[in-house]
């Protein structure tokens, strides 16, 4: 008998009688008067930066300046200018010097400051993790109160990969002292488009 | 001589200031958990939902595992089944051999600790680099993690500094956590970029979609998994949940319970390998299907490994993770490990005051302290308790079932502590160790009640 059969057979014998799944009552969930304000407060409390921008074109100049600095900067947002599609096939050693990445997010979560980013928005799965500084752009209307509404508005299996990212990489593994910039981005700035 | 929790804890508490520091540090994490939990009015409801989803999953595990496998295979993931730790290790070894892999990075996976994967591979001449900062620290020191979420919580920054000075050439005596973390970042970036295989754990696997979620704060799981041409994700089969929408409940509970964060920095959802990548999932039993059949203990399979029960436990905080001599320490470890090896872990259910704090903070409502108590009975019935404890229990049984003998013994005890205190205040009495004996009362409650009870009634 294979391990698979052995395991499944034992489970079939040992699993208890079927119980029901709970109904998640949305009326029981926390509500925020201002989801943007909550999103900003929480994200800044965990090391992220949040800025409200009237129009995405305001970021264009910043991107141009970033690219002119000579640093390796990647843009994946069409509304900001040319998209650096070529990074799709870049390896880790080619991306290792990546200073900054501009990435569009799908939905922001007020309760925890997380932003969902699909693989197609990252262009390359490594991008938001390997860059030194992460720039994420989301629309204000796409901020939802909690994770329940966030999962309503995304399809986790639509693409091969996707992630909720909440602020910069961090660790407290040395004596519980918080250090920002463990293995991933050292800073995370979220621009929220009005 | 077998090492027991009590013997190992005695070594740990020999350093009193460090014990106090350990105690306070973990209590601080517990307080952060409270603050995060109290921030959500629906917290108790969330726990209840989490518990019910897990109960339901265990009651339909057969179907969910088959559904998960089918969907994962359709997504292009290779699914393996391992009956025990040895099979798990062999499956991974075989993949390594097939691809002639030399460079391996691993993010945190308590399952691989449980299966002793690193040791197994090392015996076959294969080096694995642990990439979680805490795990890398303890790996350099050739120690196991002492906590499932905070692997190096037993160490001070001076210890880490000395370890990094030795292994990474950092400045001697530079204890700055920022500096030390930066050194690890540079060192591990090289390892990520060169990696040929990334091994990760799994926090949740979704039956409906055939995908899995890995949560980290550091980003180390992602750095490895998106770099290496081969990714192996290892999971105990109880990590399965029915639907993607249920992730909302568990991601809300997990980080708040673990460290008081609203969510981990990265909650990565893997569904398909990237082009030219090979993705594997190893589904491991290792005693879990047996635990599922133990009615009193199956609830332990609901655990989401947040370690809230560790941080709140007065025994864990004052004895340290290594005293539990198992991969998963703390209260939850003490109800999981007797299932793996009852004889070797017979001491663990006794390493508790049964105060119940673990049960109160558990995000999926596992009745941990009740299971500890029930394991004690199973272990006693199987004959695995120490002789001294057995004699003690027999004596107590005799004493407590005979009121007259009990009253006489009480009188004798009070008399002895008062008149001949050295009879109890000596090394042979384990209750005297690190404690003063209490002032004996002049009379028992019963005597007092017989005198005053009736008159005070009206």
TrEMBL record, chain A:
Write down the Gene3D superfamilies for this protein, in alphabetical order: NagB/RpiA/CoA transferase-like
Fetch the SUPFAM superfamilies from UniProt: NagB/RpiA/CoA transferase-like
The cross-references to InterPro entries, in alphabetical order and at most eight, read: FTHF_cligase-like_sf, LUD_dom, NagB/RpiA_transferase-like
Q: What residues does the LUD domain cover?
A: 101-193
From which domain of life does this come?
Bacteria
Designated name of the protein: Lactate utilization protein B/C
Q: Which organism is it from?
A: Flavobacterium rhamnosiphilum
From TrEMBL, chain B:
The GO biological-process annotations, alphabetized, read as: lactate metabolic process
- Pfam families, per the entry: Fer4_8, LUD_dom, LutB_C
Domain called 4Fe-4S ferredoxin-type: residue spans: 293-323
What GO MF terms are annotated?
A: 4 iron, 4 sulfur cluster binding; metal ion binding
> InterPro entries from the xrefs?
4Fe4S_Fe-S-bd, 4Fe4S_Fe_S_CS, FTHF_cligase-like_sf, Helical_ferredxn, LUD_dom, LutB/LldF, LutB_C, NagB/RpiA_transferase-like
Q: Which Gene3D superfamilies match?
A: Alpha-helical ferredoxin, NagB/RpiA/CoA transferase-like
What are the protein's UniProt keywords? 4Fe-4S, Electron transport, Iron, Iron-sulfur, Metal-binding, Repeat, Transport
- Native source species: Flavobacterium rhamnosiphilum
Which taxonomic lineage does the organism of this UniProt entry have?
Answer: Bacteria, Pseudomonadati, Bacteroidota, Flavobacteriia, Flavobacteriales
Can you name this protein?
A: Lactate utilization protein
